[in-house]
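Same chain as my last thread, 254 residues:
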Amino acid sequence: MLDLKVTGNSHPTPGYSLLRLTDPQNPLPEILPGQFVQLLVENAPHTFLRRPISVNHVDRTANELWLLIHMIGEGTTQLGRLAEGDSVNVIFPLGNSFSTEQCGSAPLLVGGGVGIAPMLYLGSQLKAMGITPTFLLGARSHADLMQLEEFEKYGRVLLTTEDGSAGERGFVTQHSVLSQERFSHIYCCGPKPMMIAVARYALGKDIPCEVSLENLMACGLGACLCCVEDTDLGNVCVCKEGPIFNIKKLKWQI
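reply #2:
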């Protein structure tokens, strides 16, 4: 648990905050792609629990932790209002991580909505390993797409929008690349129906696939049982055993 200082807070699109945090005294600890943090929310009288946020990126040169926050309730809205110089209490890093050791030479990273957040850091780590990933990002419209210039630093970026205003029209699972190319590994985060559709595609093609679950989390430590998910090992806490799962471990109806 650390008190981190806000070094910047921008709004890449309405309703979203890109919060950048640093430890002014020490280097940030090791953080793996797919892990998350729990943020204490202050000055929010109806918010009693910390808010779990996926790690969006870690800039080691600037010693910064990036968090992409969807401002949808009192807690996340208050976090989105933090200003440079403010302090926020953070428990991190939490959870497990995406596996990268055997991802092959052609991984596909799929993100929808705020689910794009962990894909940026994962892509940067793959690039550092000498692997250039393909990003497949989905949104309602062009106005909802975020951080495209950052993603382009690490790999090829493909887009889908529901209204056709950017990339191909439709959902990520309808993108033409899925029928034209063969991928070695798939990583995915986003709305559950999207992840189920991607998992179904991966199973049909016999491609290893991992998803980052976004179950409701309260404690982040496996004590409150808010985030339980049914797996082949029974009910497990997503915050402790996840949030990253191989799709073959999940008892989804896919």
